[in-house]
Design goal:
Number of domains: 1
CATH class: Alpha Beta
Number of strands: 8
Mean pLDDT: 87
Low-confidence stretches: none
Oligomer: single chain
Radius of gyration: 18 Å
Strand content: 25-35%
Structural class: alpha+beta
Distance between the termini: 26 Å
Largest sheet: 8 strands, mixed
Shape: globular
CATH superfamily: Gcn5-related N-acetyltransferase (GNAT)
Strand order of the largest sheet: 1-2-3-4-5-6-8-7
Number of helices: 6
Length: 209
Amino acid sequence: MFYTNRLMLRNLDLKADHPTLIQWLNDQEIMEAMVADAVRPTSREGVVEFVQARAKHPGGLPFFAICERPTKISQPGRTFADGGDFFVTGDGAPRYPIIGLLNINNWRFSFTNRVAMLGIAFDGEHRGRKGYGAEVLSWACEYMFGHIGLHRCELEAHPENHRALQCYRKVGFRDEGTKREALWRDGRWHDTVLMAILEKDWRARTTAS
């Protein structure tokens, strides 16, 4: 697990996260924040494949479940009085409920160029209301540049998603251009904004602060 001031980032777990993910992966608003392709309904089997594929960290890059930081943190491998494990309680409820997802995407990853694509999504209750997005992204930048050794991180955003754009810019991502009519959604073409942050940009910000 990894921690910020208010959040915990952990691996996905099928038992703990399946009930929530089957709702999220069938929620149009959440899925539109996660994928650039057409949004499609997901079956129970599809959720299993989703979790299993990302829990293996394809390409060596991680996919995180975002949870609110618990006041008492349990250690993996310990014995739980309720008969559960680190991820679920004895009655099968998630011990640390998932509220969002963070994806350091390997489809743009290059070992030579050290570039990756970042994706982040929260459920409706926690989206854009508590500053969690900036908190997770700040942690992600330090993790990517300080631990994985990336040189550059990219993301794409919708021009009309002003709250998200403000969050990305607050962390230090810069606008690099507009991809014209790059996304087909709701019966029409949409532009997307390409944003990126370099390791030296992040270091300059953290040194200055």
